[in-house]
Design brief:
The structure is a single chain. Helix content is 40%, strand content 14%. The chain is α/β, with parallel strands linked by helices and 414 residues long. The chain folds into two domains: 185 residues, Rossmann fold (3-Layer(aba) Sandwich); 147 residues, Rossmann fold. It has a six-stranded parallel beta sheet with strand order 2-1-3-4-6-5, sandwiched between helices. It has a six-stranded mixed beta sheet with strand order 7-9-8-10-11-12. Helix 14 links the parallel strand 10 and strand 11. Helix 4 packs across helix 5 and helix 7 packs parallel to helix 8.
């Protein structure tokens, strides 16, 4: 039957069964193309459809971001991340922001939506679209916007609600669509309202998703760099995990080697390092303070920040080796599950973090409960070096032994 059909015009060969519809819309399309050819916004429209940045975007981005950072209420990564979003909205008219009620929580203890008046005052952007508590529907809408093209979809929600959005997020990663996620409330101590609203395994599960770039910055400077890296990430969605609490251990120094835009870099460099303290997010400040305490005990500790595993894994092996060090003890520090940290620590490494669900307690008690403190880290490092003999100077390499975890502050036996 197919051989008996007469030869079709080229346009109908392409459209197939849709050829009658194509013939009906041909006149309308030709008329639209004629108007588009002489329209004054043709260049901007083509740029948005192709997903390209405007001219002088880098200069305008740094200027707008700097101004928004100055007007931010605090210096936490959550304040910096939302300030970056406002700066981005001024430069990219194609940005579409959807927000969930969980992004506006004040007490950070339970997913309570604010009244309409308070929610209006707490808006992130003037033209944002609120999705209330429908986080799963919001994530699906983001995929639809990304598939439509010409728009840059973005959303803001709580870190703990990512499980409601996981199916749509996975589909965005599967289709390799550009979607931006800003997850607020990333932190161990989210108040006294319940340990169920403290992320434990979410971070590891997100890092395991292909084509998804997960950024967990530690300060304002790193947040800005992560924003830039997220915008340039190709082939999938990008996610920023933002903490609402400011660093209580003082400002971080300028990078000693590398840059945050490469996914990992050296915060503090030590010659002939014995220990490499590797952390992300707020725990970088804890690692830096622990290195100062170790220095008083004649233990040379280098501090490394890895805000994005995906970007760091794409760097040359020589760069990763320089950042992580070729020898010495590696210690991972993160207020989350240690699943997957073997990738950077190796079999001889030590992880300090969480291996159980959170509990209802203030910040200090929770960090002490899981041993994510300067004192517990230093004691763990010293005990490991004494056992391996590295502290006595016999060798900077650690012996083969299984990776261990810290559940709480260590105590010495009498």
């Amino acid at each position: 039957h197919a051989l008996a059909e007469p030869h079709l015009p080229p346009e109908e060969e392409l459209t197939g069964p849709w050829s009658p519809t194509a013939r009906r819309g041909a006149t309308t399309r030709r008329s639209w193309l004629r108007r588009f050819a002489r329209h004054r916004l043709r260049t901007a429209f083509e740029r948005e459809i192709q997903g390209q940045r405007p001219a002088l975007f880098e200069e305008d981005w740094h200027r707008a971001c700097h101004w928004q950072m100055q007007s931010a209420e605090g210096h936490a990564t959550q304040d910096a991340g939302l300030a970056g979003l406002r700066a981005l909205s001024e430069l990219l008219p194609e940005l579409v922001c959807l927000t969930a009620a969980s992004a506006y929580r004040l007490d950070l203890a339970a997913p309570v939506a604010l009244p309409a008046t308070q929610q209006a005052r707490a808006r992130l952007l003037p033209a944002e679209q609120s999705c209330s508590i429908q986080d799963h529907g919001m994530a699906g809408m983001l995929n639809g916007i990304a598939l439509h093209g010409g728009l840059l979809p973005c959303c803001a929600a709580s870190m703990m609600t990512v499980d409601r959005m996981r199916s749509a997020l996975r589909m965005a990663a599967l289709m390799r669509r550009k979607v931006l996620y800003l997850l607020t409330g990333d932190g161990l101590a989210l108040g006294d309202g319940g340990g169920g609203w403290q992320p434990v395994e979410q971070l590891a599960s997100l890092r395991a998703m292909p084509h998804l770039a997960v950024f967990r910055p530690c300060d304002v400077r790193e947040t800005t760099a992560c924003w830039e890296a997220a915008l340039t990430w190709q082939g999938g969605p990008a996610m920023l995990l933002l903490c609402p609490y400011e660093n209580q251990h003082g400002p971080l120094p300028a990078p000693a080697f590398g840059t945050p835009s490469r996914g990992g870099y050296v915060v503090k460099q030590e010659e002939m390092r014995q220990v490499t303290l590797i952390a992300s997010g707020p725990e970088v400040a804890i690692a830096l303070k622990a290195s100062h305490h170790l220095a008083r005990q004649d233990i040379r500790a280098t501090v490394v920040s890895i805000p994005c595993w995906e970007l760091f894994a794409e760097q040359p092996a020589s760069y990763r080796k320089t950042v992580l060090g070729a020898s010495g003890l590696r210690v991972g520090i993160e207020a989350a599950s240690g699943f997957g940290w073997e990738r950077w620590l190796g079999e001889e490494g030590v992880f300090v973090g969480m291996d159980d669900f959170g509990t209802s307690a203030p910040a200090n008690a929770l960090y002490e409960r899981f041993g994510i403190t300067v004192e517990a880290i230093c004691e763990k490092v010293r005990a490991h070096l004494l056992t391996s003999g590295a502290e006595r100077g016999s060798s900077l390499r650690t012996p083969d032994q299984p990776r261990t975890r810290v559940r709480g502050p260590l105590t010495t036996r009498p």
